[in-house]
Amino acid sequence: MEIWLEGGEKVKVKVRGFIIETDQPHHCGGEDTAPTPYELFLSGIGSCMGYYVSKVCKKYNLPVEGVKLQLEEEGEGIRVKIFTPKNFQQEHLAKMIEYAKKCKVKKRIEDGVNFEIKGEKHSPF
Question: pTM for this structure?
């Protein structure tokens, strides 16, 4: 993964050939042209859980239309709500919750992360 500064408050990331842009809102000195890194962090959790919820739809041959997740910060934690169409059975919703808990991003956060940050004079890329 390569990360570089773009000027102002903008930062870009290259991962698997994709370019992800970040910026800050106007009130933080940015131009508000892209999500903040923290918003991408939260969206990573939500999209990971969405992936696992979609596996339930596939396993039980359920339509994905109308299935939505909502992620909110609450105090020191994060609350995720899974919404389904009215015709979904409660057992399918229970399975979706079970599968969402398998999200690898969530598990990594819960397991804890150690950071090593060091400086180098020359870039490898």
Answer: 0.88
